[in-house]
Write a structure and sequence with these properties.
This protein is mainly beta. The chain has 3 helices and 26 strands.
């Protein structure tokens, strides 16, 4: 009887550990079943696709073809990123942000600041230009005739997969403030937000602000419980990456915090850098991948308005297996000059299955020489580490 009392008295202290162990086992099971395509033999390939700046959009269509965009052009791969077709043009004024409508398969290239989009209903073979209507938020920001909503240097948008807003298109973006200027004195007026559409992109609503001023160039990912995680660059402090949550399908952003692990561009500068964030399509687990620079080479400019891109190098990817709480795994992709990046992921049952794609700016002498795409899997990212060791509480 004494032993039974002793065991019962330990339950309050044992419960958190037991829950953590149970959670780790569930994630381990999910990764080894629905996540199995990401855990084959390690694979890693880097290819140069474009010259000049523009590492901002890569998406995988429902048939598994991978599309890498550069300004108003794109290239596609039908073999999981092994080879790429020629450069093709969307339209002379195309730009903004790509989002794939998972409901009907349409590719949308949304130009929010100008109030139109280019749409492809046949997986990129043809494109049609159409006007869209964008409603501003409660601050009267975000429509083309108020303070425009800039979406260019952001991670591609997403189609929500869970909860009561399933099917909603959600695109991250930025309000530049009353002047549209990126000069130092106007940066405190910038803020990130998102815009969403419930009618397949015909009309859009701009959300409430991300609750950190001076933010811009972000990315978002929906977790399996319907929460949406926003990752945000910040332009004023020597900070790590900022994050926040939406619990209502991207309409309101709350509970911001600064990561104690993930950098926001070159450490030592106050200007940050665009980075990617994506959730892998693994049922039963919220595995996230983050990309940015991992370096202490950054320096503050020696004058107001001076270059803030000093030290941009060593583009790196991190993995979280608990929905962004911890980031126990990272690996460098390219040690040389590198800058903006975003992420894509393959489709089960297609040649792209199990692949993670990093679309990033890089060069030999400076970081804006061209755009490259790295293709890799979780086995490469783990770099020989046992999966259970990174899942341990």
């Amino acid at each position: 009887m004494k032993h039974a009392v002793l065991v019962l008295s330990l339950i309050p202290w044992l419960a958190p550990a037991l829950a953590a162990a149970s959670g780790s086992s569930a994630i381990d099971h999910a990764l080894r079943t629905s996540g199995k395509p990401f855990l084959g033999e390690p694979t890693f390939v880097v290819q140069s696709l474009f010259t000049g700046r523009g590492g901002r959009d890569i998406v995988t269509a429902r048939d598994g073809r991978v599309f890498a965009f550069h300004n108003h052009t794109f290239r596609e791969s039908d073999d999981g990123g092994a080879t790429w077709g020629p450069v093709r043009d969307v339209g002379p004024d195309a730009g903004g942000k790509i989002v794939l409508d998972e409901t009907n398969g349409d590719l949308l290239f949304v130009r929010a600041d100008k109030g139109f989009l280019w749409r492809s209903r046949d997986d990129g073979r043809t494109w049609t230009r159409a006007p869209i209507r964008i409603s501003p938020n409660r601050f009267k920001h975000g429509s083309p005739d108020t303070v425009p909503f800039a979406v260019g240097a952001f991670q591609p948008g997403v189609t929500l997969q869970f909860g009561r807003h399933k099917g909603r298109l959600l695109v991250p973006g930025r309000v530049f403030g009353p002047t549209g200027s990126n000069d130092v004195e106007w940066r405190p007026y910038h803020y990130n937000a998102a815009m969403y559409s419930d009618d397949h992109g015909a009309t859009w609503q701009v959300s409430a602000p991300f609750p950190i001023l001076g933010s811009g160039e972000g990315a978002l990912a929906e977790l399996s419980d319907g929460r949406i995680l926003y990752s945000s660059r910040e332009h004023m402090g020597k900070n790590n990456r900022f994050f926040g949550w939406s619990y209502d399908g991207g309409e309101l952003w709350l509970d911001p915090w600064e990561s104690d692990t993930l950098p926001d561009g070159a450490r030592g500068t106050s200007y940050g850098c665009m980075g990617g964030l994506i959730r892998l399509p693994i049922e039963g687990a919220d595995v996230l991948i983050y990309s940015n620079l991992d370096t202490v080479a950054g320096k503050m400019p020696d004058k107001v308005g001076g270059s803030t891109s000093n030290g941009r190098e060593n583009i790196t990817v991190w993995a979280s297996f608990d929905g962004g709480k911890t980031w126990p795994v990272k690996r460098a992709v390219y040690a040389g000059p590198s800058a903006y990046s975003n992420l894509g992921v393959g489709r089960h049952g297609t040649p792209s299955a199990g692949k993670i794609f990093l679309h990033f700016e890089a060069g030999e002498k400076h970081c804006y020489e061209g755009v490259r795409v790295a293709s890799f899997n979780l086995s490469w990212l783990l770099n020989g580490r046992d999966l259970r060791s990174v899942l341990a509480p």
